Amino acid sequence: MSTLKIVSLLPSATEIVCLLGLEQNLVGRSHECDFPESVTQLPICSEANFPDNLSSAAIDVKVKEILADALSVYTVKREVIKELEPDVVITQAQCEVCAVSLQEVEEALENYLDKEAKIVSLQPNSLDDIFNDIKTVATALNVTHQGDEVIEVLQERVDIIRHKLKFSDSKPTVACIEWLEPMMLSGNWVPELVSLAGGTNILTEAGKHSPYVHWDNIRLHDPELILVMPCGFSIERTLKEVDILLQLPGFNELKAVKNNRVYIVDGNQYFNRPGPRIVDSIEILAEIIHPKQFIFGYEGDGWIRFGV
What we know:
Helices cover 38% and strands 15% of the residues.
C-alpha cells in the first residue's frame, strides 16, 4: 500500500485522499490544491493559462476567449508528472473552467508516461455525487472500508442538521452569487445545500450548472438573504470586488440589505469545492440561515456578515 503513488489534479480530490489516510501517498498536486496546508509542499503538476490578478470581468472574458479558441484554461505539466511516476492520477469531468479536465489529462499523458497510470475522473453535480466520488476514490486506492467510514461520519453530520430543522417552519429565500461580473448564481449542489440548511434557494436548480442571471431577476425575487461566494475566491479576494454589488440599481432596497443579511462566504475553501468540506458548507449555511438554532463556529473564517 505504501508504494502506491498518487497525483491529484483537483483540490477536492486531494482532501478526499488525505481524509482516507493516504496523504503520505500523494506525490504531486494541482496549482490550486492547498488543504490541508501540508500538501502545498508537493510538486505542482498544473498551471492556469491566465494571470491570477485579474478582475472578475477580466477573468470571464479571458476564459471565454481561451475556450472559443478551443484551447485549455489549464496546462498539465506532463514532464513533472512523468518524473513522479504516479500509479493513479485523479482529475475531473465536471467543469472545464474549474480545474484540469479528464480530456486534458488523457491527451497530456497518453503514451507519455513510462508506466501506465490509472486515471480516476470525478463528475459531481449533487451531494450524493460528492459522496459517491469519495467511494470512487476509496475504491481506486484500495481503501473501500475507510471510504465507507468517512461517508458515514459526513452523513451523520448532515442528519443532525436535518433533524434539528424537522419542525422549523421558517425557510427564508436565499440568493447564492457565484460570480459578480457578469452575475451568476450557484447551481450544481448549492441549491440542495441551501435546502438542507433550512433555506429556499432562488433562481437555480439543483444538479444543473450555474447560470448567468440578470440582476433584475434577483431584484424581482427580493431574497431575504444574499450569500456571495465567487468561484475560487477567498473572503479577502471577494471583498476587493464587492463594490460591484453596491453599485447595482436597487441594491440598497432589497430585504436582505435592509435587514443586514448579506454575507460573504469562502467559496474557494468550501462551497465551490466538492469534497469532504461540502458538509462544512451545509453547517455554514445552517448557522447563517438559522443563527438561533446553529452555532458551529465558522464565523470569521468561513463567513462574515457584510455591512452596507
